[in-house]
Amino acid sequence: HVFKRLKFLGNKTLSHVATLFFLTIWHGLHSGYILCFSMEFFIITVERQAQALVQDSPLLTKLANSHLYPLIYVVQQFIHWLFMGYPLVPFCLFTYDKWLKVYSSIYFCGHVFFLMVYLILPFLRKTLVPKKDQSEKKQN
């Protein structure tokens, strides 16, 4: 409901950030809530960029619609389920000293994974999306 009521802002990203900020305040000011909702925003941003890359790249679109789709779907679901609980760790543990121990024990693998994907996606876009499509996107 909060996201829909922020439609007047005219920007989905801003509405999303404001909604997650509201959720953070609603749940409380523990650092775990702040980290959980900020991680959620980052993960959704990376997923949107990856989805846009597949839609804009003729090669990836063809691959996604090929007979390899079941394999691609399994890999996608594996990544999804592997990292689904990752941002919920601080949400459940509330305080910095607790969730930091958990993330440290797994070497912040989710943070590293999504940061690497976030940094790699622009290079993949340059190589996989034809120049004509990139210039049309900028004009829109």
UniProtKB/TrEMBL annotation:
Topology of this chain in the membrane: Multi-pass membrane protein
Enzyme class: transferase
GO molecular function: acyltransferase activity
Signal peptide: none
Keywords, in A-Z order: Acyltransferase, Endoplasmic reticulum, Lipid biosynthesis, Lipid metabolism, Membrane, Phospholipid biosynthesis, Phospholipid metabolism, Transferase, Transmembrane, Transmembrane helix
Keyword Transferase: yes
InterPro entries in UniProt: LPLAT_7/PORCN-like (IPR049941), MBOAT_fam (IPR004299)
Pathway it works in: Phospholipid metabolism; Lipid metabolism; phospholipid metabolism
Localization per Swiss-Prot or TrEMBL: Endoplasmic reticulum membrane
Enzyme Commission number, as recorded: 2.3.1.23, 2.3.1.n6
Top-level taxon: Eukaryota
Residue stretches spanning the membrane: 20-46, 67-84, 104-124
Sequence similarity: Belongs to the membrane-bound acyltransferase family.
Protein name: Lysophospholipid acyltransferase 5
